[in-house]
Amino acid sequence: MHKTCLLMIPGPTELTQGVLTALSAPMCSHLDPGFTDDWKQTLQRLRLVFGCSNGQPFVASGNGTLAMDMAAANLPEPDDTVLVVNTGVFGDRFASILGCYGRTVTQVCAPQIGDVPSLEAVENLLRDGNFKLLVATHVDTSTGVRVDVKRLAALGHRYGTLVVVDGVCAVAGEEMQQEEWNIDLVVAASQKALGAPPGLAIVMAGPRAVHAFHARKTPVRHGDADWTFWLPLVENGITRETRHRGTPPINLIRALNVALSQILAEGLEARVAHHELVSKAIKAGVNALGLTQVPIGPDRAAHTLSAVYYPPGLDCSLLAHVEEEGVILSGGFHPVIHDRYFRIGHMGTISHSDALKTLGALERGLDRAGYKFEPGAGSVAAQKVLSES
Ligand SMILES: *Cc1c(COP(=O)(O)O)cnc(C)c1O
Question: Which of 1, 58, 208, 369 is deepest in the core (most CB within 10 A)?
Fold first, then answer.
């Protein structure tokens, strides 16, 4: 591996020095007052970052998939039906996890890969079904597609569903106003736009989700993710009575706390605007190189990553050439097209010059792979976007 490789994949992301330092702090007891303060602060900062002042944040050892599992285990009951708005692999994953708990899942799929299901299609199903839950993926990392979760949430509430959003690849990179938009539950993970290391499953439950949990008639079928064990810790903080059931990942939580403080210091609005600008610059760059993207239009495309088709004649060997130039990109992830496209993650600590380095390395890689293009065209297009902002 190249010594100074820049990690530009859709999670995990590069870490700031402050986050790295928190990770290497000497180990302490999970009842240490320093850590119990960190725990409280982390939960409070999560409420700010999710825009959910009245939410209950759950932070558990695990990943985004476990956060999805926690939502599936605690919210719907065995007879409840769920509508999943599917824009890629992570919709499939949510549907399959819900299926594990015996829920009846209907999916409304995008008409083609790179598109989103229409609001009309979602509404037709909501009108005819009696869904307890509407689930959508804010940014599907397999396609680079972003859906309008604000409008979907409004629609879901008109038909009386709880609204769940997979925000793993979005929170802190795309705008999220969970409380204002009436989203009942958002799942996330530490290692994507939040800019912390992998290892934490994060769930933000709004008041209606917590109420639905308390109103359950059947027990939760999960021995660890059951909110019964977690709610006291969230509501009261860590005490001798309400301590974690299993040992918490102390330094990961501390690292997340630092990452959250850095996000809040930057300001959420500024951070989202920065992600939009960097995304526009990278997308302008790949367009100028003659490459096409998986999302079928800019209004469908995420700001946290770009999903780009290889030009004719090229394949994933391009990524090795780009890595030779010091930038690590990611291959495709959608099973139908996985060998036809690659992904550039641009979330977390991403800077303007990281974007330019990535396009520069991509150009060098394309050149080595024998692709013909105007040298520098990608960088020029990106610089124009950055300097016109
Ligand atoms: C990465 C991702 C997940 C899964 O998260 P893991 O931490 O890899 O388990 C779920 N949903 C989306 C949208 C993701 O990008």
Answer: 58
